[in-house]
């Protein structure tokens, strides 16, 4: 298949979000079933929720949540965009199926597993690349609005929040869900399709 026939998509994530993690596992399946190339980008829930009145436990998590997105952003700036997905995979594996609640420890594990310099961990507590982090988050919000979270997926100039899935569909089921998401997102005037969640993230 030629490059002209392949679909270009962008996937925004925050490593601390379990639902973005589930959707990212689905997106990996989609890439095996459909001719889709994905650019992986950060979207910070800590940035998104600045100044909002939130429950204290969620606010505490977001305060700690600056670390992972800052490190992934710094890694991409210093080592190229090709390291973003492997580092997200490694940090996300530590946090979600791995159950690591200390984000500094998850970052350390992630950097080691992704084969990246341990020194990048220092960026978890640095604002050096916050401008790039905020710009990436803003690009996602400009496409879907600020009343969503992660993940955000954009394809052919159309973006949508989600899908929120658990467990992540596999094989052709993943491809069919992708086809449906692209179809409804590309329908003029379509905004939302939703039902209540009856299960939590199912990591496997």
Provide the fold topology.
Layout: E1 7-13, H1 18-33, E2 36-42, H2 45-48, H3 56-64, H4 66-79, H5 84-95, H6 103-114, H7 130-144, E3 152-155, E4 158-161, H8 171-185
Parallel strand pairs: 1-2
Antiparallel strand pairs: 1-3, 3-4
Helix pairs in contact: 1-8, 4-5, 5-6
Can you put this structure into words, describing what you see?
- The protein is α+β, with helices and mostly antiparallel strands.
- Helix content is 48%, strand content 11%.
- It contains eight helices and four strands, in the order E-H-E-H-H-H-H-H-H-E-E-H.
- Strands 2-1-3-4 form a four-stranded mixed sheet, with helices on both faces.
- The two termini are 32 Å apart.
- 39% of the residues are buried.
- The mean pLDDT is 93.
In a nutshell, what does this entry contain?
The chain has 204 residues and is α+β, with helices and mostly antiparallel strands.
> What class, by secondary structure content?
alpha+beta
Write down the overall mean pLDDT. Answer: 93
Low-confidence stretches: none
Proportion of residues in helical segments:
40-55%
* Biggest sheet overview: 4 strands, mixed
Write the element-wise H/E pattern from the N-terminal end onward.
EHEHHHHHHEEH
Say how many strands there are.
4
**Which strand order spans the largest sheet, edge to edge or round the barrel?**
2-1-3-4
The end-to-end span amounts to 32 Å
Number of helices: 8
User: Into which percentage range does the β-strand content fall?
Assistant: 5-15%
The general outline is: globular
Radius of gyration: 16 Å
């Amino acid at each position: 298949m030629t490059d002209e026939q392949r679909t270009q998509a962008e996937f925004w994530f925050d490593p601390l979000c379990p639902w973005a993690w589930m959707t990212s596992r689905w997106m990996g399946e989609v890439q095996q079933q459909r001719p889709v190339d994905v650019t992986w980008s950060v979207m910070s829930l800590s940035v998104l929720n600045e100044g909002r009145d939130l429950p204290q436990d969620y606010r505490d998590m977001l305060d700690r949540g600056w670390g992972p997105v800052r490190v992934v952003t710094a890694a991409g700036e210093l080592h190229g965009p090709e390291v973003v997905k492997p580092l997200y995979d490694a940090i996300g594996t530590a946090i979600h199926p791995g159950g690591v609640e200390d984000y500094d420890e998850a970052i350390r594990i992630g950097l080691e597993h992704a084969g990246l310099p341990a020194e990048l961990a220092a960026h978890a507590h640095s604002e050096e690349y916050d401008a790039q982090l905020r710009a990436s988050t803003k690009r996602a919000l400009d496409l879907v609005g600020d009343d969503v979270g992660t993940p955000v997926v954009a394809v052919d100039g159309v973006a949508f929040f989600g899908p929120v899935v658990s467990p992540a569909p596999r094989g052709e089921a993943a491809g069919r869900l992708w086809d449906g998401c692209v179809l409804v997102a590309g329908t003029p005037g379509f905004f939302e399709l939703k039902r209540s969640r009856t299960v939590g993230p199912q990591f496997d």
